[in-house]
Amino acid sequence: MISSLNIAKILGRGNPSALIISSAVLALILFFYAYTIGSYFQADVSPLENRVNYHHPFTTFIIDKYFDHLIIASGMVLWLALSVMGRAKIVTSAIYGIIAIIAASAKIETLFDIVALISIPIVISFLIYNKLTPKKILHTSNLPLAYLAIIGIIIGFVGIVISSAPLFSVTQKSIPIHDYSYEIFLLLSSLSPILIFFLILGSPIKLFIQKWIVRIKIKNIVHPVSNYSVKSKTKTLYLLLFMLLSITIALIPHQPAINSDNQQVGSDSGDYAIMINKLMESNNPQEFAHNVFTITYSKDRSAFSLFLYTVVKIAHANTSYVVDRMPIILAPALVLVIFFLTRELTSNDTASLLASFLTAVSFQTLIGMYSGIYANWFALIIGYLSLVFLIRFLKAANKLNLLAYSILMILLVFSHANTWTIFAMFEGLFLAVMYKMNQYTRKNIIFLLVVVLSSVAIDVARSSLTGTSGGITSDVALAGGAGTGQLPSLWSNLTDTVQNYGGGQFSVFIIFSLGLYWLYRSNSRELSSIFIIIFLALAVLPLLVGDGIIQSRVLYDIPFQIPAAIGLTYLMRHTNGMLVTIPICIWLVAISLRMLTNFYFVSPS
């Protein structure tokens, strides 16, 4: 882990001084370049401030436009002089340096923009040429990545400090230091719709290209990554730490320093409180049972209503107070369930722990709190837990696993009808693929398919007996807004979903970038790959022909943190991989804090 890293070696001990300097300079250029290119193209960003997303072009520089360009140009001249070999060193550094001097001294803005903008493309061109030709023209190493990670760690910690300021009654805008991590996050998050698009469409494309359904037999199935086991005590400690982190995250928006008048955090909290109060007004058990299956916000999520009602009764506190703090229970439960699901899929403790950490700071947690979609959140926990027992039964037929799966699927039907529909579709498709591949005993697969079909029958029966819309009926009605007519609006729908739904929490580019890295590295013979690809495939049609409502519901139910965790596990294998993992984790915590401290609504003046 971190304690085992040789800091001196990471910083370049044993390498030539020229290589160390050029690597540090390149890392610094990349840092400044992110601001330059974002400001030049004025990327649309949507920061969350006082619970509202404000859309505006990115026009931020680290110092100012002139000095940022000057640092990039000076750094490029130095990098070319130290990294390029032979005569090309003199020619390239001289040409670039002369143009930069002319642009800077004469203050020719357009030319200076060009000088700054072509810097990284020049570096990339040299790296590609150096990679493809036998005669090397560059001195290269992994040091730039190490230095970039160090910069990321520093500004990540600064971001945590600035994001935590409201907890001490200090406004973030009053701090004179830039929150670089959040600014870069906003800039790169503008790419999130693109990342989601390629991740969702790329998964089934990769699946069909490799034609694994036809070719792969049971003997070829492998697990995704080496079985890195973690000691039980260490594993338990990390898991408890991540659960505690999720509880802390759930408590932050309620702190008096942020939420001075005890404002409700979840958008739907008020509706759930009204529902619970109506249940409490029931005069007898028969009326109570009738209300559970008929009143608004309970009829299609009766199991959650009973759970919430029980919690309120046990707490003996104000209904609104208890309802709005449901994330304190739901967040750690989701962290725990994702750990077990990832463990079943990968048999890898490291990937499972990373998935549980990512869940603590995931958009599922943050959107669940911001929007107050507690029934959906509760149903996710039930649904993911049902998948744990589904996979266990596939691997080793056991009556207890089948019984647990059956009970959880029935409970899911009554927890949140729309979430159940998505899980039923996924599980039916996943089991059909397993049957086609002859991966597991077909008899066991049929047993599981019977359970899925039985849940459909229960949903239909529930709808008929109570006179309310079932999961299938409501989803069919919801799909009425979908169709090929949505194709021209595909990009605007996806952008709106990512930047606006749930306070723009879907725009976590880090998770989707890691997901794409997983897709690149994934082996279609792996159980986890088959599982994730099928889950992502469910979002293809909503992405192409669905509106924003359909897209947001489907995207929220997909466990993106699992492929992201596996991708992070792959990344850790590389040189300096552990070092790169540290700023990723720090940034996710910093961004989550920034979002949480802006859940409190302040009316724009």
Number of domains: 3
Instruction: Summarize model confidence as the mean pLDDT.
Output: 89
Shape: globular
Number of helices: 30
Strand line-up of the largest beta sheet: 1-4
Q: Can you tell me the residue ranges where pLDDT is under 50 for at least 5 consecutive residues?
A: 1-5, 212-224
Number of E-type strands: 4
Structural class: mainly alpha
Radius of gyration: 26 Å
Distance between the termini: 49 Å
Largest sheet: 2 strands, antiparallel
* Helicity, as a percent range: 55-70%
Features:
3 domains, 69% helix, two-stranded antiparallel ribbon, mainly alpha, 605 residues, single chain, disordered N terminus
Structure report:
This protein has 605 residues and is mainly alpha-helical. The protein has helices at residues 7-10, 17-40, 65-83, 87-105, 109-117, 119-132, 143-164, 180-189, 192-210, 212-215, 232-251, 269-280, 285-292, 302-315, 319-324, 327-346, 349-360, 363-371, 374-395, 399-413, 417-437, 442-466, 471-478, 490-500, 509-521, 527-537, 540-545, 548-557, 561-572, 577-596, and strands at residues 44-45, 48-49, 52-53, 56-57. Helix 16 runs parallel beside helix 19. The protein is globular. The chain starts with 6 loop residues before the first helix and ends in a 9-residue tail after the last helix. Mean pLDDT is 89; it is low at 1-5 and 212-224.
Summarize the structure.
This protein is mainly alpha-helical.
